[in-house]
Amino acid sequence: MRRREFIRLLGGVTVAWPISARAQQAAMPVVGFANGQSAAAFARFVTAFKEGLSQVGYVEGQNVVIEYRWAEGQESRMLGLIGELVHRPVDVLAISGSGQGALASKTFSSSVPIVAIDGDDPVRQGLVASLNRPGGNITIVMVYTTTLEAKRLEILHKLLPHAALIGVVVDPTYPFAKAQVEELHAAAATQGLQIQIFGASSESELESVFAALARAGVGAVALVGNPFFNSRRDKLVALSAQYALPSMFEVRQFAEAGGLISYGPSFAEAYRQSGMYTGRILKGEKPGDLPVVQPTKFDLVINLKTAKALGIDIPPTLLALADDVIE
After folding, report:
1. Alpha-carbon gap, residue 257 to 142, rounded angstroms
2. Contact 102/127 with Cβ under 8 angstroms?
3. N-to-C CA span, the chain
4. What is the structure's pLDDT at 58?
5. Alpha-carbon torsion, ordered 232, 236, 242, 247, to 10 deg
6. Which regions in the chain score pLDDT beneath 50?
7. 232 Cβ contact partners less than 8 Å away, ≥ 6 residues apart
8. CB neighbours of 22 closer than 8 A, spacing ≥ 6?
9. Cis peptide leading into residue 89 (ω within 30°)
10. Ordered DSSP codes for 113-124
């Protein structure tokens, strides 16, 4: 009798445990992660995002589920991907790697909490009421994509003061491209520089633009910040080397990959901050109460090996300003 009771009890535990485990799994909060680029290109930033989540106590697969959606560089896909996640539904929506993602997410829901990494002024875009108290269902981690072009042009001029013409490459389909070009024209006029604008928004256009830059005889190239260029890092570094064009990039990963010079905020830090804000919202805080995160540190990175290959002597004053020098 005791043996039969033990077997019956054991059978009950065997059946009940999977049900309990499924219930626990179903109770996990779900984070929707929508990115305008590819998983391969943004792998290190996903790691940073998950590090931020873990700092607040959330570990993927243990107490939070992350649903990923990737637009693969096709901005037009973002709206559909965000819609999928909103209707899944998710507890928090994390948007990044897209010029239109934050604005698109607001068209779907005024209630789903949103954390967006964005490169333009969120107040000017109408995303938040103010930087200190965003209000509504969205908060922003800024990366200043559209407000550093003048500074990059200034640094490039210090590096190559005798460059008579600087080529500027923009993605004309990027929502903030017009603002970037206006900023660059104003900066060029102030600094007494001559610039020529070139547009590229596809892989094939990058090839033809660099050939056009070489034909135009530019002394240097400034590639403005945007998600498409960031997703084509290795291609852009290779083209710069192929045509022996000294190029200024947005983020340090370009210089680490062999680009000459970069200046900009830390994207990895922005994704970590996004992960932390996502975790805080999961714990009950409201996005409208979380101040917009503004970058406080900007990295100037110089690749001396590339400079040597191009026959460029880096001015000592610029070397002294560098946060990192790759030899």
Report:
1. 24
2. yes
3. 78
4. 98
5. -170
6. 1-25
7. 203, 206
8. none
9. yes
10. -EEEEESS-TTT
Strand order across the 166-170 sheet: 195-199, 166-170, 220-223, 247-249, 261-265, 298-303, 324-326
Q: What is the pLDDT of residues 200-233, one digit of tens each?
A: 999 899 999 999 999 999 999 999 988 889 888 9
**CATH 3.40.50.2300-classified regions of the chain:** 26-144+267-289, 149-264+298-326
Q: Which residue is it, tokens 């200034």?
A: 154
Burial of 39 per CB tally in 10 Å (0-12, 13-18, 19+) = exposed
The per-residue pLDDT for 14 is: 38
Q: How far apart are CA 244 and CA 293, in angstroms?
A: 38
- Supply 6's token pair: 């033990």
Structure confidence at residue 146 (pLDDT): 64
Ramachandran angles phi, psi of 105, nearest 5° = -65, -35
Q: Give per-residue pLDDT as tens, 140-149.
A: 999 876 678 9
E strand or H helix at 255: helix 252-256
Nearest partner of 277 among 179, 139, 70, judged by Cα: 139
Specify the CATH number of the domain 149-264+298-326.
3.40.50.2300
Burial class (CB in 10 A: 0-12, 13-18, 19+), 326: middle
The Cα 240–Cα 207 span in angstroms is 10
Contacts of 17 (CB under 8 A, 6+ apart): none
Q: Does domain 26-144+267-289 have CATH number 3.40.50.150?
A: no
Residue owning tokens 């190239």:
221
3-state secondary structure 147-166: CCHHHHHHHHHHHCCCCCCE
Beginning with the edge strand found earlier in the chain, give each strand of the sheet holding 30-35 in spatial order. Answer: 65-70, 30-35, 92-96, 114-118, 138-142
Classify residue 95 by burial, with Cβ atoms within 10 Å: 0-12, 13-18, 19+: buried
Tell me the torsion sign for CA atoms 317, 256, 199, 211. positive
